[in-house]
Every structure is written in C-alpha cells, then in structure tokens.
Amino acid sequence: MKLKDKVAIITGAARGIGRATALKFAREGAKVVVSDRGLQNLEEVVAALKEINAEVLACDVDVVDRNQVQKMVDEAVGKWGKIDVLVNNAGITADNQLLKMPEEDFDKVINVNLKGVYNCGQIAAKVMAEAGSGVILNASSVVGIYGNFGQTNYAATKWGVIGMTKTWAKELGRKGIRVNAVAPGFILTPMTEKMPEKVLDMMRSKSPIGLLGLPEDIANAYAFLASDEARFITGIVLSVDGGVVL
C-alpha cells in the first residue's frame, strides 16, 4: 500500500474525481479527510469508505471561507497529528461566451477554483512546513493549458492553478513539500454522463485511443504523485487526457 498511514485531505470529495480519489487513497492505506459543501452530500462517500474499513473524517467546507478551511485542517491535525497530502480538487463551472458572461459568474468561478486552492494550499502548507514534509496536488485541466470555447472563467482559473503549482514547488521544496498539478481531459462524471450521446461521441473522437476518462484514471495519477514513488517529481503538470490534445 503506497500511502500507508498517510493523512490526506481531499476537497470536493462528494462525487466524481474527488470521490474516486478518496476511495483510491483509502485502498492504498491512507487516512482520509473528505470535504465538500454540506455533510449530507458526503454521506455516500463516507459510507463507501467505511465499507472498506477506512479511517475517515468528513468536513463541511466552503473552500472560499478561510475559517472553514482552517477548522478542517485543525480537526485533521487534532485527530491524526499531521497532514501528509492535500488534494485541491474542489471546483465549479459557470460557462458562457465572453460577450454573454455575467460578472458574478466570473467572480464565482475565480473564487472557488483559484482562491479556494490558495486558501487550502496556504493553510495546509503551514502544517506541512512545520513537519518538514508533505505533498500538495492541484486540479488543473487541459482547458487551462489550451483554452476552451465558452470557458473564459474556468480556463483562467485552471491556468492560474498551474502558475501557483510551479511557484509553490519553488518556494516549498526547501521545506520538504512537493507540489504538482494534474490536468484531466474529458472525464465521465455524473455531470458529463447527462450529456447527449452525440456530444460524448464527439469527445471520444478527439482522443487517439477513442476513450473518455474515468474518475479512477485521475485518482490513480493523484495516488502516484502523492506516494514516495514520486519523491523526485515536483512542479509538473501531468496531463491525463487520453491524448486529446495531441
């Protein structure tokens, strides 16, 4: 088990990639803190984790609220004495073309996807720095590298996450903290599964291997980067996209 006895915080863990990551980490021996907005939204993933006898702490957290993030970190440290891994997975979309995008939708996505990553990263990094070790993993996107029609706000945040990742890797490396980002491509989540089949077929056609990713594909990448097997890897953006951008 590559994450045995590691303590990992996973934001946006109620569903999709966050849920898959929590389960993957638990199967690899980690003690997991799952956070999302509303404890009721975490009930299913907590039950799934308990079915595999995982040690789990559920936290109701809006990542934009620093006080809530601080409380989550304090609870994790109070329960297990440390934080080894932070997976900054929480994120939202509010898509629209530039000429039609309301300012409030731009601000909302910036706050969650960028300030939320900053809040969690800074607060967790202080604990890791005191311990002299840790791993921070940030969710970017191929959209953040290449842009996408109708996603000015989302693309800006995911590009910003890459900038933070590389900056933190430079700043925190001397503290024993590795920082990397993962850039998913088209992933089958509860949200994308509701799309028309012709749209899904179009997304598949863009991949040389003709596949859409699964949340588990991203979880596997996070687990590797969180483990000691990746001890010499920091400051990278790992694209997990089925070659969609080739």
Automatic annotation (TrEMBL):
Catalytic activity: a (3R)-hydroxyacyl-[ACP] + NADP(+) = a 3-oxoacyl-[ACP] + NADPH + H(+)
Pathway assigned to this chain's UniProt record: Lipid metabolism; fatty acid biosynthesis
Keywords carried by this UniProt record: Fatty acid biosynthesis, Fatty acid metabolism, Lipid biosynthesis, Lipid metabolism, NADP, Oxidoreductase
InterPro entries, alphabetized: 3oxo_ACP_reduc, KR_dom, NAD(P)-bd_dom_sf, Sc_DH/Rdtase_CS, SDR_fam
Keyword Lipid metabolism among record annotations: yes
Residues passing through the membrane, by range: none
NCBIfam families named in the record: 3oxo_ACP_reduc (TIGR01830), PRK05653.1-3 (NF004198), PRK07231.1 (NF005559), PRK12826.1-2 (NF009466)
Family: Belongs to the short-chain dehydrogenases/reductases (SDR) family.
Entry protein name: 3-oxoacyl-[acyl-carrier-protein] reductase
Lineage summary: Bacteria, Bacillati, Bacillota, Clostridia, Eubacteriales
